[in-house]
TrEMBL record:
The chain crosses the membrane at residues 6-24. This is Uncharacterized protein. The keyword Transmembrane applies. Keywords: Membrane, Transmembrane, Transmembrane helix.
Length: 221
């Protein structure tokens, strides 16, 4: 009898250890903006924070892809995989490149920063995962382009941008909050109307905000 109890105990322990090993080997997919790239002794990395404190390993080919990342009108996001629990063993899966034309609508009345939401995109990562991105332009004085800002989120795989936006609205509504002082591009508004999407606005980015409204606000300050 004791022998069988011993075998049962050993079997349970093996199952527990196997389950724990499997759980701790689980992976997760993340996405973050790229802030540069670096190399050291034939090892290449992507910088994912200002100042380079956080990095993700990458291949030489991926490293070379980022050669134009310093351009004002170009920005990248990196999709990577890591251990779900220990946040280590990071592996770059994809680089997303975003480029905007330099604006030709200069305006001397613009005296400070504001944002333009200029696009929404969907990237398929694998059979289970997609990445939804909202792309902003940051404009500065004289209405010049200062930065291209991708805001991305990992979601369950969906078929198109409309489905992605709907899923994010249901599960992560905070992601869809507009940046302060955001003007919505006409192409984005057209897509929202087609998809019957209702954006949540705020006093910092009210519905129908136009550049002339921002100029008026600046003039009253």
């Amino acid at each position: 009898m004791k022998w069988w109890l011993y075998l049962i105990g050993i079997s349970c322990l093996i199952l527990l250890l196997a389950g724990s090993y499997y759980a701790f080997q689980q992976k997760e997919i993340k996405v973050v903006r790229v802030y540069g790239y670096g190399s050291s002794q034939d090892e290449y990395s992507i910088l994912t924070s200002l100042g380079g404190a956080n990095t993700i390993p990458c291949t030489y080919e991926q490293y070379n892809t980022l050669s134009d990342d310093s351009y004002i009108n170009i920005s990248y996001s990196v999709i990577y995989e890591q251990n779900r629990w220990f946040k280590n063993n990071q592996h770059t899966l994809k680089l997303l490149r975003f480029e905007r034309e330099f604006p030709n609508d200069q305006n001397k009345q613009v005296q400070s920063f504001y944002y333009r939401l200029v696009g929404e995109t969907l990237e398929q990562v694998n059979d289970n995962t997609s990445v939804f991105t909202r792309l902003y332009e940051k404009r500065e004085s004289n209405n010049n382009l200062f930065d291209v800002i991708p805001q991305s989120i990992v979601i369950s795989r969906v078929g198109d941008v409309m489905q992605a936006r709907q899923l994010v609205q249901e599960q992560h509504p905070e992601f869809l909050k507009l940046m302060n002082e955001t003007v919505i591009d006409d192409s984005v508004l057209g897509n929202w109307k087609r998809d019957d999407y209702q954006q949540a606005y705020s006093s910092a980015s009210p519905e129908g905000l136009l550049l002339k409204d921002i100029i008026k606000r600046e003039g009253s300050q």
